[in-house]
Amino acid sequence: MIVEVKNLVAGYGQRVLIRNLSFSVPSPAFVAIIGHNGAGKTTFFRAFQQKIDYQGKLLVHHQDLRQLSNPAEKGILSYLPQKNIINFPIKVHDLVVMGLFRKKHFFEDYGAADYQQAAQVLEQLQLSHLIDHDFTTLSGGEQQLVWLAQLMLQDADIVLLDEPTQQLDVYYKNKVFALLQEWTIQKGKTVLCITHDLYNLLPLKGYILNLSKPAPELEPITSETVKANQAFLEAGRQPVL
Ligand SMILES: Nc1ncnc2c1ncn2[C@@H]1O[C@H](COP(=O)(O)OP(=O)(O)OP(=O)(O)O)[C@@H](O)[C@H]1O
Q1: What is the position in ligand 1's atom list of the atom closest to the CA of 45?
Q2: Can you tell me whether residue 38 is helix, strand or coil?
Q3: ipTM of the complex
Q4: Superfamily of domain 1-76+159-164+191-241
């Protein structure tokens, strides 16, 4: 089992957002996590990162995440937040190369081979022209792609992405989803991706987890499930019982 969620209950104080969620991802897969604004998608990721208290169990590779120290350092888990703000000047190349942090000792400098790897992922994302730019001067979508490049270098087994295509144009939305699919099929990664871009899921193989449903479960991505979930979300929020 790569990821197992067992009877997860999570929220804030009296406000329970995730009630008894259970599912398992037995082999590398792409999982789109969908739901209305405020449904608890980011909260679910916070539980994964042990940033909030929760009941139930979260297991990765059969290990309880509560007992697993520093899964990022071990290359088990990586995370791309919805917003990641930097307020000091830094070159795109220098930011991306930091994705290799777990291969470095404390204070060890990044070398030519590391910068070469960073340049390669930037090229793959068609961002080579931005390599020497100051990150803080880039557009929102460009910044989002640069973070994605850094995440690629982290090369973790399980990748959590919170709306990675939110600010992207139609071309890059498709390109990023295709890339995430490639990570699962060619590199054996498990990708959990929060998204509101349901129609971009249509060409993909994987699963949908709709956290707005009363009993969310993994549904295979097909044109029927995408359309049914889109209709479900368009119908509006269900009253909380
Ligand atoms: N630290 C917190 N304390 C109390 N309530 C919080 C906290 N963080 C988030 N919430 C609330 O929990 C609810 C779920 O938030 P969450 O960020 O998980 O939603 P989401 O499904 O990711 O939504 P969106 O699609 O808008 O990003 C929201 O109503 C939010 O206001």
Answers
A1: 18
A2: coil
A3: 0.97
A4: P-loop containing nucleotide triphosphate hydrolases (3.40.50.300)
